[in-house]
Automatic annotation (TrEMBL):
Pfam families assigned to the protein according to its UniProt record, in alphabetical order: Epimerase
Source taxon at top rank: Bacteria
Originating organism: Pseudaquabacterium inlustre
PANTHER family xref list: NADH DEHYDROGENASE [UBIQUINONE] 1 ALPHA SUBCOMPLEX SUBUNIT 9, MITOCHONDRIAL, NADH-UBIQUINONE OXIDOREDUCTASE 39 KDA SUBUNIT-RELATED
Protein name, as recorded: Complex I NDUFA9 subunit family protein
Amino acid sequence: MTPQRIVITGGSGFVGRALCERLVSTWPGCRLVVPTRHLPNARAVQSLPTVDVLACDVHQPAQLAALLQGADALVHLVAVLHGDAARFDRVHVALPRTLAAAARAAGIRRVVHVSALGVAADAPSNYLRSKAAGEAVWRQAEQVDGAGGLDVRILRPSVIFGEDDRFTNLFAGLLKLFPLMPLAGTGARFQPVWVGDVAQAIVELTRRDDLTSATVEAAGPEVLTLGQIVQRVGAMSGRPRPVLPLPEWAGMLQAAGMALLPGEPPMSRDNVLSMRVPNVAGGTLPGLSALGITPQPLARLAAHFAPARPAYQWR
């Protein structure tokens, strides 16, 4: 399948920007449509050729109907990491339900939905439970349509890293400020995956018709604990710091305090609960290698975090 018009919900975000750049270089003749409620949020993709940024509230069915007209593929990236149960349900469950109905009505052939590793109906966090419910919405929509209807592919990535991510850059900033890093969930296991590999996986899921599974896991080449990730970021940024493990109850108190800060909190109680589940590939589903992708390690960020050298040095 070589789509001619792709709608990318969440296309102005961290993963969306990488995806738009990859699609522009992969299919230069394809029009990419990126909806956003606030046009300034999409400045990073507005300058790309063949990308159309449109003012749209994707939660509104009438606006979605107009947005999807003439499109033959939909990539859904919208997600939230913080909030109460109602917010997670609105974004991760109700929105896919609205999108699925609009996609069927518009005659969309292919949908790529980005979920997460570790999702389950009985998971300990609102994030993971709502992500599982969102996957179920898409699978139900696919069954309703039957043969010739919606063809839904689901990508489950581990924590995604890149030069502009909020994950590793958050720790790099904290390591710059503090001589010691107190941290809950230091033993939580992740398999960090590079944003460029995630973008390429979405491209492959959009175009390929020969998949053996409609659900693919996106994980990097290394399984690392959260403590090891922080230590590696410290080493790459030239600020190695000792990590002080905190028990979960202390992490919950820490997250509650962070929730009082203005803006999006760096950590929430729900994030702490999510870390009870290993964020690693299960091995029963195909991974990036099935899409012809060799995943990049966390060390790819070394140049990004390398300490700046002074312009002049005495010898």
